[in-house]
Amino acid sequence: MPSVLDKLKQYRQDLIDKSKLHEQIEEIKDKSSAYNQHKSAELNYEECQQVSYISSELQNFQNIPRPVNAENAG
Question: Under DSSP, is residue 54 helix (H, G, I), strand (E, B) or coil?
């Protein structure tokens, strides 16, 4: 049977472990909050009415020049 001292030591260790866990949870919450703020800022955009958006399926890439470094690609 564990002594009272052993139980107190275990209780203290449990408190330390919970404190560390709490710190980690708060750190994750802070990072998550910062990430969500960053993502929401990225999504706030406006389309320019003067630009025409064209699907890549409609573009013809067959007549473009070969890249200068294409010879080195092997």
Answer: coil
Report d(CA 38, CA 32) in Å as an integer: 10
- Rg of the chain on CA atoms, in Å: 30
Amino acid making up residue 50? Q
| Measured distance CA(55)–CA(41) in Å, rounded | 26
DSSP letter at 1 equals -
Q: How far apart are CA 59 and CA 61, in angstroms?
A: 6
Question: What would the pLDDT profile of 23-62 be if each residue is shown by its tens digit?
Answer: 888 888 888 877 777 666 666 566 677 766 666 666 677 7
Cα pseudo-dihedral 52, 57, 58, 63, rounded to 10 = 110
